[in-house]
Amino acid sequence: MLNKLSLCAIASVLLWSCSEPKEEVGVHTFVKDDHTQSNADSIDITHLNLDVKVNFDDRYIQGCATWDIDNKYNVSHLKLDGYKLTVDSILVDGNKVDFAWGATVEHLGEQLQIPIEENSKLVAIYYKSDPSAQAMQWMTPQQTLSKKHPFLYTQSEAIYARSWIPVPDGPGIRFTYNARVEVPKDLIALMSATNPQQKNDSGIYHFEMDVPIPAYLMALGVGDLEFKAIDDRTGVYADPMFLEKAHNEFAEVGDMVKIAEEMYGPYRWGRYDILVLPSGFPLGGMENPKLTFATPTIISGDRSLVNLIAHELAHNWSGNLVTNATWNDFWLNEGFTVYFERRLTEQMTDKSYADMLWELGYQDLEHTVQEMQEEDNMKDSHLKIELKGREPDEGLTDIAYEKGALFLKLIENTVGREKMDAFLTQYFNEHAFKTITTEEFIAYLRENLIEGDKELEEKINIDAWVYGPGIPDNAPRADMERFERVNAEREKFLNGTAPKDLTTADWTTHEWLHFLRKLPKPLAYDKMKALDDAYDFSISNNSEIADLWYIMAVAADYKPAYRVMENFLVNVGRRKFLTPLYSEMMETGKEEMAKLIYERARPNYHPLAQRTLDELILK
């Protein structure tokens, strides 16, 4: 440790003395954020130099995090967020200093307190993460597709970067970074930065992110991976056994980037690549800059679920480029992104296809609002919510996503698509690499689009959407043309028509989801069997359809699906699928089945999914 400490200290001093200041990108603004204990509001924390080694045997990363700071207000301490980090020592401009940890605060972790002087410039922290770090999933070879090598990935959103880096961890705090990461020589490391496209002989990889990002976009993936280009600026990383399948699924992503640029201005991040993670990944995708992390559950073989990539790509304008200042403003991230995603999907398909996505999203929103009503929790159905004293993950609901997107769709319908697109392009350009609050957005909307038009303001009714509960009365609904045909086929089936005689040959995933969602629950056993015999739902390769079918099977006690359902739960870690399916078991008298499956499946789930399901199943 002494030799590594000395080398890192020398590197820190050299960085301080030799680095040239970079041109400022964006403007640093800080709004009070209840989910960080850092003091980024009173000291500029501008750049991270990360030098770490990945230890798979003991499941931690260890090394040095060096922060460039500007103590222009002469504060006495630099304060950073941490969660179960072990700090060995800290150097300020090459000199060792004492440091202290604050008491653990629920939902927030610990505050790292480092004494500094007015002219302090570099703070080097020698630390290691804990094996239980919330952001990190360590996977054994058996938990990967090839079953030859271990795998590590991080999930830093919302406030989990602090569990693997001592960091000012808030969405309104942006910084640049470079990194050196050492991994076993038969593996490759990737980050939310410039990335290698093949393994090297040393196991040491270097990264640079030269535009400022918030901590929740810090990402690391380490595994046995190969790369294949889609075009000159897009490509896919995946397990060697899965690479060709993934590449085929994402073949249109290069065109998707070009269409997005035509809609809302240039893609500012250089490359856009996709890393397909092992199936334990708890989300559909994560919009890490330059490198989207994606679940393998979107790879269905027919590109029918690739609109998720449209969503993650859209984040490179809404979220990554223009970022919500706090987690209370999360709808500014996800609502804009869902709207962008739907518009992008419409450009790549047609209006009737996008209309199906809008309607399915509306159904999800209705379900979420109904649950909030039953729980007497309608304050969380506002777009601007209050998360102080709570996990920010509690705000990651369909309110932020679907209600936020519907609000923007209403504005589009009211002012016209041409004006809406001009407004959004201007918004992205003027706020590039900046953060924004809900109130700042509303002021910008009024100044640049509503422009004092009282009739227009009344039609939109901003306050009802942003600060009011539920779904406002003026919420737009999509054209139901394709779903009306689905409704007709469903009625025929319920009235006795055999599944083989239904007109379903040209249906997409979305027609099938609408068909299944609106069937009676529980559906009669004979009708379950008839559908399964005709369409093989129990063994579907489409994860969206399979998950919905398994929920129906649990409700109907349709045992022929149980064996495959258990295999699905053991191998898929996406919370979107797990939570409703386990919930159905818990609500229909099948608690023992849920507990037995979960006991087997739990090791394959990310810590974030484990936390959600522990509360549901083991309470």
Write the layout of secondary structure elements.
Elements: H1 2-18, E1 44-55, E2 60-70, E3 77-82, E4 86-92, E5 95-97, E6 100-101, E7 110-115, E8 122-128, E9 136-139, E10 151-154, E11 174-182, E12 188-191, E13 204-214, E14 220-223, E15 226-229, E16 234-238, H2 243-249, H3 253-264, E17 272-276, E18 285-286, E19 291-294, H4 307-314, E20 322-324, H5 331-348, H6 351-374, H7 398-415, H8 417-430, E21 434-436, H9 438-450, H10 454-460, H11 462-466, H12 481-494, H13 509-517, H14 525-535, H15 543-556, H16 562-571, H17 575-587, H18 591-601, H19 607-617
Helix pairs in contact: 3-4, 4-5, 5-6, 5-7, 6-7, 7-8, 8-9, 12-13, 13-15, 15-17, 16-18, 17-18, 17-19
Strand order of the largest sheet: 5-4-8-2-1-11-13
Rg calculated over all Cα atoms = 25 Å
Main sheet makeup: 7 strands, mixed
- Strand coverage percent: 15-25%
Structural class: alpha+beta
Helix content: 25-40%
Average pLDDT metric: 94
CATH topology of the largest domain: Immunoglobulin-like
Poorly predicted tracts of residues: 1-7, 9-29
Task: Quickly name the level 1 CATH class of the largest domain.
Answer: Mainly Beta
User: What best-fitting shape do the alpha-carbon axes yield?
Assistant: globular
Number of continuous helical runs:
19
**For this structure, what is the CATH homologous superfamily of the largest domain?**
tricorn interacting facor f3 domain
Number of strands: 21
Number of domains: 4
| Amino-to-carboxy terminus distance | 43 Å
CATH architecture of the largest domain: Sandwich
